[in-house]
Write a structure and sequence with these properties.
Blueprint: H1 4-15, H2 18-23, H3 39-52, H4 57-70, H5 76-80, H6 84-90, H7 100-120, H8 123-129, H9 135-145, H10 151-161, H11 170-178, H12 190-207, H13 211-220, H14 228-235
Length: about 240
C-alpha cells in the first residue's frame, strides 16, 4: 500500500491546496465525549439517520422540530410506555414523514437504547467505551441489535454522534482499491470489511490522523472532484 502522504497530496491538489483540504476535514472527533450524550439525543439521531436514508436529507432536517414533538422528545422510557394507538396515529401525522416501517423502527430502537443504557450506564457511555479501532464490530452490533441501522446508516449514525467514523462511500472504496487494497466493488463482505478496518487502522497509527479525516481525504482523492463550497454545505451536518 502507498504512503498515505501521497494520497493526501493528490487530494490537496484536487481541492486547491493543503489549506483548502484541511478546511474540509471537519473537527477532530472525540469518542470519549459521547459518554455525556443523553439517551434521548442518541435515539433522536438514530431516528434522523433512519428517516434520512433513501430520502432528501434537507427535507428531514427542515421537518425535524415536528419529529421531536411527535415522538415526545425521543425519550426512550416515555415512548415505550405509549399504547399501540399512539404509534398507529403517527402513520397519519403530518409533522413527520409517514413511513410505517421507519416509525416502527423508532419504537424498536427506543427499546434497544433503553436496554443498552441499562447495561452500560448510558448508551453514550457504551459507544465511548467501544474500541476506536473496531468500527466494523460496532456497526455490525448496531445492525444486528438495532432497527434499520445496518449498512451506511450505522456509519452515518456514528459520524453524526461524533464517533471517529470512516464512511464507506463509493469514492472511499474506489480510493482504497486504487491504492491496492484487494476488496470488492462494494466492500461489504466480512473479509473485505476486515481488510478496510486493518488498513484504516494502519494509516491512523502512521499519520496520527482521526479515522474520519482519513476517510474524507480518501474520498476527496479520487472520483468526482466536487467544489469545496459544495462539500462544505454537505458537511454542515
Amino acid at each position: 500500500m502507498p504512503d498515505f502522504a501521497r494520497i493526501r497530496a493528490r487530494a490537496a491538489e484536487r481541492k486547491g491546496g493543503e489549506a483548502v483540504l484541511k478546511s474540509l476535514l471537519g473537527p477532530v472527533p472525540d469518542n470519549v465525549a459521547l459518554a455525556k450524550i443523553s439517551d434521548d439525543r442518541i435515539l433522536s439521531t438514530m431516528a434522523e439517520r433512519v428517516f434520512a436514508a433513501g430520502f432528501v436529507w434537507r427535507v428531514i432536517e427542515q421537518k425535524w422540530p415536528g419529529f421531536e414533538e411527535a415522538f415526545l422528545g425521543f425519550e426512550p422510557k416515555r415512548l415505550l410506555f405509549q399504547p399501540d394507538d399512539f404509534w398507529h396515529e403517527l402513520a397519519s401525522d403530518k409533522r413527520i414523514v409517514r413511513n410505517p416501517q421507519k416509525i416502527r423502527s423508532v419504537h424498536e430502537n427506543a427499546a434497544f437504547v433503553e436496554r443498552v443504557s441499562k447495561e452500560h450506564d448510558g448508551f453514550g457511555r457504551f459507544l465511548a467505551d467501544w474500541p476506536a479501532d473496531d468500527q466494523i464490530g460496532l456497526t455490525a452490533y448496531l445492525g444486528k441489535h438495532g432497527s434499520r441501522l445496518g449498512g451506511n446508516t450505522g456509519q452515518y449514525l456514528l459520524r453524526w454522534l461524533g464517533w471517529d467514523t470512516f464512511i464507506l462511500s463509493q469514492d472511499m472504496i474506489l480510493a482504497l482499491r486504487d491504492a491496492g487494497l484487494d476488496i470488492g466493488d462494494a466492500a461489504s463482505s466480512k473479509k473485505d470489511l476486515a481488510k478496510v478496518q486493518a488498513q484504516i487502522n494502519a494509516w491512523a497509527q502512521d499519520t496520527k490522523l482521526p479515522r474520519a479525516h482519513i476517510s474524507r481525504i480518501l474520498s476527496m482523492s479520487i472520483g468526482t472532484n466536487r467544489p469545496a463550497d459544495e462539500l462544505r454545505a454537505y458537511m454542515d451536518e
